[in-house]
Amino acid sequence: MDDSEENSEADAVKDTIKSEMDESPKTSRKRSLCIVPQCKTRTVNRIQILLPKELEPYSSQIKIMVIITKCYNNRQNALIESPTGSGKTLALLASACGCVLDYKVKQKNCLKHGSGAIIAELQENNNGHESEVECTCNQMKKLRIYYGTRTHTQISQVIKEYERFSYGHESGENQLKHTILASREHLCINEEVRKSKNLRESCKEACGGCNEALEAYKEVNKAETCNKDDGKKTKMRKCIYRENLAEYEKPGRKPNGFRRNIDRFFDIEDLVYSLKNLHICPYYASKRILYGDADIVFTPFNYLIDPMIRSSASINLENSIVILDEAHNIEDICRNAASFSFKESELRGAILFFNIFLSRIREKFDGTDIGDEQEKILQRVS
User: Fold this and answer.
1) Is the pLDDT of residue 10 over 90?
2) What is the mean pLDDT of the chain?
3) Half-sphere exposure of 225 (CA within 13 A, CB side)
4) Which of 155, 277, 285, 370 could pair with 374 in a Cys bridge, judged by C-beta atoms 3.0 to 4.6 Å apart?
């Protein structure tokens, strides 16, 4: 083998990790043209709501907007039933977005904490005496809309309705930005990870999240982590898509620059397509970057109902408008959230991990005097 052949072989090995980045997507998607729709304003319960100019709302839609704005003003909950085809999605979105803009105006015009504080200070100086300025925002936290749907497919339909409003077309503080929270099955673009039997654990390993629990799982499931030919462990390569996202996670970086790379009104397919071209992980981008400045979060029900998923996604429903659209099967979602299933291999992995943890406790207290209660616990779990 001459030098040129050796160099070419070395280059091939060196570029193995980057091979996926050079592949162009099989399908092409056109970026949507952001034509600002003409809208009209309708005031409901002192809340200004923007509606498409050509839309004359049904009586059922007006009732929904009245209920939503009333709940916003009084911090209440509502159970709304409306027949199919009555335009409830549009009414829910319009009224909820109007409430968020009203909230932003109160924050901005606060005489103590917002831009209105400058006017109050000037008036105070002109009068020549100090006066107690009343706070109109109470240092309010960010108000966010969580719009829950039954399936991921319905998210695309809701976003099409949202695109009819001018809320997302505006610029500056009046623009309402959105993001989508979805599972790795829908957002992962790492082909090596997707081929694994356990996508979630493989993703964590590729992103540097390997821990003792994962090692215990791999110890039990050797068939997944070992090469059948030589018995050597095959380590998951680092995810280049996750590493490329780190540049945007640096302190001080704002999501605005990141959003320029994707459609203003994106669904799951748009997000995957746009970020795959940029070689950036859509799953972590939606959670870590786009979620930060999002005013509207579109997500399936289980992200809002299941406490474990909610905690994993860092969702805090405090001071939020939560909408569960078509929630007639919410009981099944709650039942699934309170239930679980596991394989025998997963149970063996849990036992192995527990034994490792127990042995480390014994090593830590070896030769030391521990209390009677602690000794009873160790004997009981042994």
Assistant:
1) no
2) 78
3) 16
4) 370
Tokens for 15, please give them: 């570029």
Helix H or strand E encompassing 299: strand 296-300
Q: What is the largest CA-CA distance in the chain?
A: 91
| Residue type at position 35 | I
- C-beta of residue 206 within 8 angstroms of C-beta of residue 238: yes
What gap in Å lies between CA 113 and CA 158, rounded to an integer?
Answer: 35
Helix axes 59-74, 88-108, angle to 10 degrees: 40
Compute CA distances 53 → 38, 56, 57, 58, 164, whole Å. 6, 8, 10, 14, 10
Q: What is the pLDDT of residue 221?
A: 54
Instruction: Express each pLDDT in 273-302 by its tens digit.
Output: 999 998 999 999 999 899 988 999 999 998
Residue linked to tokens 């540097």: 208
CA atoms within 13 A of residue 22's CA, in its CB half-sphere = 5
Report the candidate in 101, 40, 27 with the shortest Cα–Cα distance to residue 69: 101
Close Cβ partners of 218 (under 8 Å, ≥ 6 residues apart) = 224, 225, 233
Alpha-carbon gap, residue 329 to 336, rounded angstroms: 11
Q: What does the pLDDT average to over 148-163?
A: 91
Strand ranges across the sheet with 296-300: 178-180, 296-300, 144-149, 320-324
Instruction: Say how far apart CA 97 and CA 95 lie, in whole Å.
Output: 6
Q: What are phi and psi of 297, to 5 degrees?
A: -120, 115
Buried residues in 111-132 as b, exposed as e (16+ CB within 10 A): bebbebeeebeeeeeeeeeeee
